[in-house]
Amino acid sequence: MSSDTPPARIAPAAAGVEAAAPDTHGGAPDLLGRRSRRALGWGFFASELSVLFRRRRTWAMLAALAAIPILIAVAIRVTDGGDGRGPAFLDRITQNGLFVGMTALVVSIPLFLPLTVGVVAGDSIAGEANTGTLRYLLVSPVGRIRLLVVKYAAAAVFCLTATVTVSLAGILIGIALFPVGPVTLLSGDSVSVGESLLRSLLIAVYVTLGLVGLSAIGLFISTLTDAPVGAMAATVVISIVSQVLGQLSQTEWLHPWLFSYYWLDFADLLRQPIEWSSFGGNALLQLGYVAVFGALAYGRFASKDVLS
Amino acid sequence: MSDFAIETAGLTKRFGKQLAVDGVDLAVPEGSVFGFLGPNGSGKTTTIRMLLGLASATAGDIRVLGQAMPRRLANVLPGVGALIEGPGFYPFLSGAANLRRLDAADGFAPAASRAARVDHALERVGLTHAAGKKVRAYSLGMKQRLGIANALLAPRELIVLDEPTNGLDPQGTREVRHLIRSLASEGTTVFVSSHLLAEIEQMCTHAAVMSGGRLVAQGTLDELRLAGQTRARVLVPAADASRATRILTDLGLPPEPEPAPATPGTQPGGAGLGATSGTRGSANGPLPTPEGHFALPGEGAGGAGVGESVLSAVLPESVAREDVVAALVAGGVRVRGFAVQQASLEDLFVALTGEGFDVVQ
Ligand SMILES: Nc1ncnc2c1ncn2[C@@H]1O[C@H](COP(=O)(O)OP(=O)(O)O)[C@@H](O)[C@H]1O
Ligand SMILES: [Mg+2]
């Protein structure tokens, strides 16, 4: 009747729990060595990256991104060029495989890259709230600002990874399927294969930079809700709205303030000498977005009641 | 240095119009196993969230481990382990990887001993064999254990466990009880919430009772019991009942009717026992009988036999129980059973909260 049981009837597992207890004192001196000051957070950042990149979802998104240049290259290879219509650089691929990566970036920038970035950034806080881990992170204690910074940094790392994935997969499939040689730039100059690879990297950095503003928006939205899917969808929708507004002549005054304003302007990096103005403008604009939405995220999250 | 691991003054939390926590003054002594008892929705979890800095208080002050919360949060929380409203883990990581992750989040935890501490915590809750399994594949009880292991990742001064036995089988419940006792024996203060009275009664030294967001009682279990009454119960042949009633009344223990039994069907018709209204079945009332409780001979299987009756009276502290028996025997009463019933906390708590508690099993 009573829910308790005399000690004699305790099963082995319970005895194991008890037997383990005295160890704490024996092992305590080693285990007790708490740090007197909080670590800067590199350990937690590493942990965050490992959680991000151990998720099957992350790998599925990267695989999908890598499939874009492969599809493009195979399609062109099979159809032998096509009629010259299509995204920028498409017509150059048959002459030089190194253009596959750039073509794939042009194709990915409007939708596929913002989609994956929206998933990661939108999930950042809301996802933790949803799994119930947010409260445990906070009482561990992680520090709310530290959590935001680490989450944002991880999202930025994902932006770079996603862009490089598209670029690298494009270069590799280009080398496999097409002739490769010195690249003729938009300015008519020709650069070596080595330098053109460097320029590809520069373009990847440029595209990544264009996505960090969106990541900050995603982070902010993620602090508003406990529903990660909602935060992801909202982030992606905002990236589409920004591009649509960028197309309308009625909102021309707004265009330079849209985070997507410089997204497709990386062609300037394919001139000799490099035309840095769009790179600089892009960096400045994105920095502004990071500052504004980072502050909003902080303002919202620092005092938020975590009731998830 | 404060003597209290947790102290609150006028702690209040308002959700819109609803007062979830209303002017709570908690005082949890260091080294105690403190039961935080209350029905579902009485504000236990909300209080715990405020104690740990997850939610801000609408009003009131909080001190945890002698320091103001949430202002000194970064100093306080490293010494606190917690399970809050059930476990929360990444389903796609293994149990051990989850613990490593949460430990890495603790900026004060030394990375060098992480693996050893994770192994140790898993061992303490009996999850060593499932350490490498994805949490997705854990049962509810295993997740609950992992949640407790997380609270044990580092040496703590205070451990807060919000309904730690939810979802556990009786075996797991026992293990948690042992774990809490062993933590207490190491000097850790344990603050454990529950809606199960029996659980609190079995493992706590102190308790507080919440009802509708208010703290309605607080103290050591003995103090709380004193708020109730100790009863003496005597089993006698029905023929001796009136004589026994007279003797008991003379001693200052006037027998009085007991609360009606839970199962009316077992009431014998027309027993005609006057003051001794509680006859058959009264010992099998609606209350759980935790260890050390009342047991009259022969009552376990259906109460007083035919032709017997039970007399029940409040036992004043001034009267020794052996004197009661001696007086009855001297008066010629054939005493067939005698028991002193510690006041049931259940009686007190039902009176305080106006609601029944879920009964274990
Ligand atoms: N996020 C919330 N928003 C609004 N009301 C809440 C919220 N969380 C809890 N409550 C209310 O606060 C009261 C106390 O809840 P809780 O602290 O979870 O109780 P307990 O843990 O004792 O079961 C309940 O009436 C509940 O409805
Ligand atoms: Mg609760």
From TrEMBL, chain A:
Keywords: Membrane, Transmembrane, Transmembrane helix. It comes from the Bacteria. GO terms for cellular component: plasma membrane. The chain crosses the membrane at residues 59-78, 98-121, 152-178, 198-222, 229-248, 279-298. One of its GO terms (molecular function) is ABC-type transporter activity. This is ABC-2 type transport system permease protein. It comes from Herbiconiux ginsengi.
Automatic annotation (TrEMBL), chain B:
Keywords: ATP-binding, Nucleotide-binding, Transport. GO terms for molecular function: ATP binding; ATP hydrolysis activity. Gene3D superfamilies: P-loop containing nucleotide triphosphate hydrolases. InterPro entries: AAA+_ATPase, ABC_transporter-like_ATP-bd, ABC_transporter-like_CS, P-loop_NTPase. It comes from the Bacteria. Residues 250-301 are annotated as: Disordered. Residues 6-237 form the ABC transporter domain. Transmembrane segments: none annotated. The keyword Transport applies. Belongs to the ABC transporter superfamily. This is ABC-2 type transport system ATP-binding protein. The lineage of its organism: Bacteria, Bacillati, Actinomycetota, Actinomycetes, Micrococcales.
